[in-house]
Amino acid sequence: MGIRPLEEKALGVQLLREDRETETEFVTISFWEDVEAMARFTGGDPTRIHHLPRDAEFLLELPEGVQALRILVDKPPG
After folding, report:
1. Does residue 31 sit within a domain?
2. For the ABM domain, which residue ranges apply (predicted)?
3. 58-64 mean pLDDT
4. 69 in a domain, yes or no?
């Protein structure tokens, strides 16, 4: 998976997995200082997908874009 570069550059990374009856879904969440930091990492538009060479072999569908959301509330557990 292409997680290692995110682990090295992002403020934080979460990789979530849901096993279903006939498929498995993965969701990657990465945390960044700001959109400009994301753009520096991607070398351009941070919402553009950067598919890995073998993605088509493993994915049921190839996503067309990345969601870039802002955190409005961040209350840690406890």
Report:
1. yes
2. 11-45
3. 90
4. no
